[in-house]
Amino acid sequence: MTHSPAAPALTADARRVVAWSTTGFTLMFAVWVMFAIVALPIRKQFGLSDAQFALLTAIPVLTGSLLRLPAGLLADRLGGKKLFLGVTFVTAAFALALAFAHSFSMILALALGVGLAGVSFAVGNAWIAQWVPAARQGLALGTFGAGNAGASLTKLAAPLLVGLVPAGLLIPGGWHFVPFLFALLLLGVGLLTARFTPADLPRQTTRTLGDWLRPLGNAQVWRFGLYYVVFFGAYVALSLYLPKFYVDHSGVPLAEAGLLTALFIFPASLLRPLGGYLSDRFGPRGVTVAAFAVMLLGLLPLTRELALVPFVLLTTVVGVGMGVGKASTYTLVAQWYPGQMGVVGGLVGLLGGLGGFILPLTFAALAPSLGAGAAFMTLLVLTGFSGLVFLGSMLRLRSLGRQPSLV
């Protein structure tokens, strides 16, 4: 389906919603994955095993995934701005508490609260969908989703911040300074968002809770979730996995490991608006097929032992496919389920986020038997299977002549 030239232009209020939700989500995503970096000095401080390290990095992803569906539902029913601001301020409180945590059990408990940052994705999608017409949602949602680049803020800045402030000062030092600074930034961005975005549109609806949840009975929605496990869940998993891989397997220092991981994150995040534009222009089905193909081309050689330079280049190729595929998947959601982005998008995001929780644990479990390539072997099989499911579904819908209706 091609983008219609008659699609209405965005209002000034809609543009402000997209801009400030994207800014907030970028920072929230940086907070969501900060344990990929700060867990490394925590591992050294507490002598964590690989299993404990994997659990610590994955716990925030679990919280931010499981709560996406109820948060998206509430955003649809109560208004996106209210929920977005609430999530921002509550996450800031947990990040601030984390800055003063001094036991591993307390860090684990607060990591669950910090994981609320991941809920901002479902809430932000619903908020944007309330302001942007469906025919333009591909680019708008893709722009918002580019906030995934917040992971690169963590990978680039956190290693420097860990050593910037020494312990023993009036403010927390060492790794504690990272959540402390993030908490202050969240408070600031939250206040600015409250000031410069319009109030929520009136939510007058006669839908019951059963009406809101009815689309979740469609197999198509769950297939969208499977695709999002590949494009987003695997992205989160690699964002968490690669810093440790570079430090332990390639022997590079933490700051360089963060930089190399950012080279994967940039295309996987910043190409999301391009994926949304291409989906609006040429249709999300073909764009999604291309995204699967690009990922498979990058993953296949990564299953073998490689030198550092080709390894980094191939992870960048995988990131290109992920960036485009994340946007095309949510364009499919917006086109097939207009007006229900909070619920349907919430479930799709939940499933994708659960992938980001389960996959790092899977990598750690398979590494003793499959070696350093375990992560990429797992992703190759998952991507190939999901791509086949998508192709089968696409061909069946085409044979039936089924197309979404833009409104």
Automatic annotation (TrEMBL):
Record membrane topology: Multi-pass membrane protein
Bilayer-crossing regions: 17-39, 51-71, 83-101, 107-128, 149-171, 177-197, 224-242, 254-271, 283-302, 308-329, 341-366, 372-395
PROSITE patterns: MFS
Protein name (Swiss-Prot/TrEMBL): Nitrate/nitrite transporter
Keyword Membrane listed: yes
Lineage, highest ranks first: Bacteria, Thermotogati, Deinococcota, Deinococci, Deinococcales
Localization of this protein: Membrane
Record-linked InterPro entries: MFS, MFS_dom, MFS_trans_sf, NO3_transporter
Predominant place of localization: membrane
Gene Ontology biological process terms in this record: nitrate assimilation
Signal peptide segment: none
Gene it is expressed from: narK
Family annotation (PANTHER family): HIGH-AFFINITY NITRATE TRANSPORTER 2.3 (PTHR23515)
Family of this protein: Belongs to the major facilitator superfamily. Nitrate/nitrite porter (TC 2.A.1.8) family.
Domain Major facilitator superfamily (MFS) profile: 16-398
A Pfam family assignment: MFS_1
GO MF term set: nitrate transmembrane transporter activity
GO cellular component labels: membrane
Keyword Membrane: yes
Keywords: Membrane, Nitrate assimilation, Plasmid, Transmembrane, Transmembrane helix
